[in-house]
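Ticket #307: bound-state structure for 2-acetamido-2-deoxy-beta-D-glucopyranose.
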Amino acid sequence: MFWQHFRKSVIVSSSLIVVLCLFLVVMNYSEKPYFLLQPMLGQSFSRTWMFSRAPHKAFRPHYGYLSVPSQKPLKLHCEVCSIVSSSGQMLDREAGPDIDQSSCIWRMNNAPTRGFERDVGHRTDLRVVSHTSVPLLIQKPQHFFGQGNETVYVVWGPFRNMRQDGKGIVYNMLKQAVENYPHARIYVTTEERMNYCDTVFKKETGKDRIQSGSYLSTGWFTLILAMDMCKEIRVYGMINDTYCKSESFRKVPYHYYEAGSRDECAEYLLHESAPYGGHRFITEKAVFAKWAKSHPIKFLSPEWQLS
Ligand SMILES: *[C@@H]1O[C@H](CO)[C@@H](O)[C@H](O)[C@H]1NC(C)=O
Ligand SMILES: *[C@@H]1O[C@H](CO)[C@@H](O)[C@H](O)[C@H]1NC(C)=O
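RESOLUTION: The complex was predicted; output attached.
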């Protein structure tokens, strides 16, 4: 009688312990701090400068991106971000349905969806836009900013164009757009954040962006923003740093929506070697591959083999 009772209580208490352990494991797992980029320049640039562990909070305001004209920080959080590149690599891979499944779909500049849905998907939740592409949006204001459009626009550009004292030509265009389309959700990258993106380039490549005569690409700004805002990143249509030298390279237009333009690899090589005013697309891709080793970033269509 006693032994039976004893055995029973042993079983009960050990199953309690198992349940408790499981609970602790689950708790620990789900609270695992997420790697985030430091939102601002000037915060400790230690060895772990980039991948500091901060608790992951939904809708954490990001003061590196401020709304036009009210200067409110960007608040955004995405589980899975699909970043759709503008590359001709998007064509004929039929990634559209896959892209449409993710919680956030990001695009760059004025890359269209209409007529390309099968390959690039339907929705656009956010666009990262270069200051040089703003005139292209302004040409079709109803399409981009009209009623019912929920797309968030994040515009990057140098201070001279983005200054808010009336002398920033691009900022003025954006301000006008919001006056005409009050529902438009437009954010601009702060000067500090722009400097931070330059600093990241220097840290990663050893080269000073300005001295080396280059401009960062919209892809660079997009990935830096995504690492702060998305739990998981899926990049579609981006080629890796050795793609243009590989046997299997596909000759595609630089932009999927500009058939007949210079092909992607020709454009990349031209930029990479331009003494000034070029984008270092290939260098940037090598940096992205490095980031993908410590961040949940996947590159698809074409897929990157990252070890
Ligand atoms: C919103 O703008 C995007 C371009 O970013 C466009 O593709 C889409 O059709 C627009 N949506 C609506 C409802 O107007
Ligand atoms: C880069 O792309 C080429 C061509 O698709 C491929 O052969 C190579 O394995 C890729 N490298 C990596 C690291 O993914």
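RESOLUTION NOTES: The longest strand covers residues 61-67.
TICKET STATUS: resolved
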